[in-house]
Structure formats: C-alpha cells, structure tokens
C-alpha cells in the first residue's frame, strides 16, 4: 500500500517566528542582522522539521478501472471505520484482532488494485464481508459509549467480541486464497529448479551424488 507524506506547517511557523522575534530585539535593516536572522530561521526550520515531520496518509488505490477504483475507495473507507472503532476499544485482545483484519484487508485491496481480474475472487469480501464488519464495529463503538448497559446491549456487544477472531481468520484466509494459484506455480517452479540443479551437480545433494558416480566409475576402471 503506497503512502504519501503530508508535511507539517509547524516548522514554517517556527521559522517565521524567528524573524519576528529577531526583528523585535535587533534592527533587521542591517545586512549582518538580516543574514544572521536568515541563518537562525533556516536552522530553526530544519531542527523543528525533525520533531514535526508531518503525517503519512495512504494514497488512493488505482487499478485503471474507474468503476473498480470507486469500489476500492469505498472499501478503504470501511478500513478507516475499523481503525476508528479500534481507537476507542480498551481490550488488547480485540485490538489485536482488528489490527489483523485491517492488515489483511489492506493487502487484499492492494492485490485487487494491482491485478483487477482478482476482483471477481473477492467480490463478497468487497461487497459484504468488509462493509458489514465495519458496520458491526461502528455499532459496537456506539454501544460501548453508553454508560449503563442493559441485557440486550451486553449480549450484542459480546456477540461482536466473540466474532472478531473468526472474522480476522476469514480475512487472512481470503488473502491467502488470492495467491493460492500463484503459490502453487511458485512451488512447482522451485521443485523443478532444484531437481534440475541437483541433476547437474550444482547443489550439495547433487554434488554428493556426482561424487558417488565418479567413485563407482573409478572402481570400474
């Protein structure tokens, strides 16, 4: 998932503040003072930029298909809802499960953006599983904000809490299934490569076999 950095404006304000403070204390109409203020302002900017670097935001996913990109944008909003709900949850167990959901979800959407034909494989995930999960967590967050919790609210919240592990497993399974065929091809290619290299005596196993053949040949001669 690509990210872009939005720089903080604070270093600019600090650098400008140096000029104001310097101008109040010393005359800025002299060249030496102007150069000194400029040097201090630049130094203040770069130093403060280390403490206020800005924030990273995820760039919009682009598949080249405008309709699909619109769907992906909606799904990214669903992931944001999961993060927002997670921020208000105290349970570390629940937080870990939601983190798993978000991580797997991001990877799934990135895979679809990279190869739009994968969208058919994850249509239910995009149309139902992810949006419904986001909705459940939003409702949980709302109910969690209530002071007193009645029987029905407590039961509903418990239901959500108990389902998170299953949902996280399903998200990760969905991601695994996207790459299932590619993983099978990679495994087959590795096996063929290892077999060929061993046959040519290019691996430790192949070298041992080749040495045995040489020994047999010498004994025969």
Shape type: flat
Helix content class: over 70%
Summed over residues and divided by their number, the pLDDT gives a mean of 85
Q: Low-confidence spans: pLDDT under 50, at least 5 residues?
A: none
Secondary structure class reads mainly alpha
Biggest sheet features = 2 strands, antiparallel
| Residue share in β-strands | under 5%
Q: How many extended strands?
A: 2
The helix/strand series, from N terminus to C terminus, equals: EHHEHHHHHH
How far apart are the first and last residues' alpha carbons, in Å?
64 Å
Features:
flat, 221 residues, single chain, two-stranded antiparallel ribbon, mainly alpha, 4% strand, 2 strands
Q: What is the element layout, followed by pairings?
A:
Blueprint: E1 3-6, H1 10-25, H2 31-51, E2 55-58, H3 66-87, H4 92-114, H5 123-144, H6 151-178, H7 180-199, H8 204-220
Antiparallel strand pairs: 1-2
Helix pairs in contact: 1-2, 3-4, 3-5, 4-6, 5-6
Describe the fold and architecture.
With 221 residues, this protein is mostly helical. Helices cover 76% and strands 4% of the residues. It has helices spanning 10-25, 31-51, 66-87, 92-114, 123-144, 151-178, 180-199, 204-220, and strands at 3-6, 55-58. The protein has a two-stranded antiparallel sheet. Helix 1 (10-25) packs antiparallel against helix 2, helix 3 runs antiparallel to helix 4 and helix 4 runs parallel beside helix 6 (151-178). The longest helix is centred in the last third of the chain and has 28 residues, at 151-178. The radius of gyration is 30 Å and the shape is flat. The model has no long low-confidence stretch (mean pLDDT 85).
């Amino acid at each position: 998932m690509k990210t872009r950095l939005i720089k903080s404006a604070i270093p600019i304000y600090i650098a400008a503040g140096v000029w104001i403070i310097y101008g109040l204390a010393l005359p800025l109409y002299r060249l030496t003072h102007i150069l000194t203020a400029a040097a201090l302002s630049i130094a203040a900017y770069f130093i403060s930029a280390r403490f206020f670097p800005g924030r990273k935001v995820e760039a919009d996913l682009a598949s080249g298909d405008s309709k699909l990109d619109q769907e992906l944008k909606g799904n990214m909003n669903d992931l944001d809802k999961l993060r927002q709900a997670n921020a208000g949850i105290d349970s570390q167990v629940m937080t870990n499960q939601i983190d798993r959901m978000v991580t797997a979800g991001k990877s799934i959407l990135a895979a679809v953006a990279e190869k739009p034909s994968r969208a058919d494989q994850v249509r239910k995930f995009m149309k139902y599983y992810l949006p419904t999960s986001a909705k459940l967590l939003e409702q949980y967050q709302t109910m969690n904000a209530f002071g007193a919790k009645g029987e029905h609210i407590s039961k509903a919240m418990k239901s959500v809490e108990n389902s998170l592990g299953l949902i996280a497993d399903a998200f990760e399974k969905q991601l695994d299934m996207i790459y299932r065929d590619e993983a099978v091809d990679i495994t087959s290619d590795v096996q063929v490569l290892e077999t060929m290299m061993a046959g040519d005596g290019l691996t430790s196993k192949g070298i041992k076999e080749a040495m045995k053949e040489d020994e047999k040949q010498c004994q025969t001669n």
